[in-house]
Amino acid sequence: MLNKNTSSPLTFALKLLGLRSHSREELDRKLSRKGYSTESIRTVLDTLTREGVLDDRKFSMEFIRSRSSRKPSGKLKIQAELRKRGVADSIIAELLQEYESVELCHKAAEKKRGSIRGATVGEKQRKLAIFLHNRGFGWQEIQVVLKRFSLSDAGNGESCYESSP
Fold first, then answer.
1. Residue 152's pLDDT is what?
2. Hey, what domains does the chain have and what are their CATH numbers?
3. What does the pLDDT read at residue 153?
4. Which stretches in the chain have pLDDT values below 70?
5. What 3 state SS string does the chain have?
């Protein structure tokens, strides 16, 4: 049971939202863990939603934008992370329609390829493909990027995936 020195659910929710955006379900879980009643949580979430402070669509857009610039990931990983945060599939599908995953796959591969070590070009390609797959990129996107690197490296007279001097 909460004591009288404990903050209200609204105050706690606003504090959390001041630190970073949250989805409705994330905020619900955190308020529940703090010990607030289901009824008070529902009231706070409804109020914050009505006031436009809590919006799963805006949260998702911000999450995707942040992830794209900080740690490029594929649609599969973004979708899984948003679902984990309780965002509705309809919102996720809508926002991921315009997600430029091939370019982000290329960006992630570009960052990683200098650090990949291997004995053969094939081994380096395999390691890069596994890295990109683990980042949630689809095999079609990965193949496009691997082909792009192979062509650009071959055109420069360099062997595939080796850093230039």
1. 59
2. 9-50 (1.10.10), 56-96 (no CATH), 101-155 (1.10.10)
3. 57
4. 1-6, 151-165
5. CCCCCCCCHHHHHHHHHHHCCCCHHHHHHHHHHHCCCHHHHHHHHHHHHHCCCCCHHHHHHHHHHHHHHHCCCCHHHHHHHHHHCCCCHHHHHHHHCCCCHHHHHHHHHHHHHCCCCCCCHHHHHHHHHHHHHHCCCCHHHHHHHHHHHHHHHHHCCCCCCCCCC
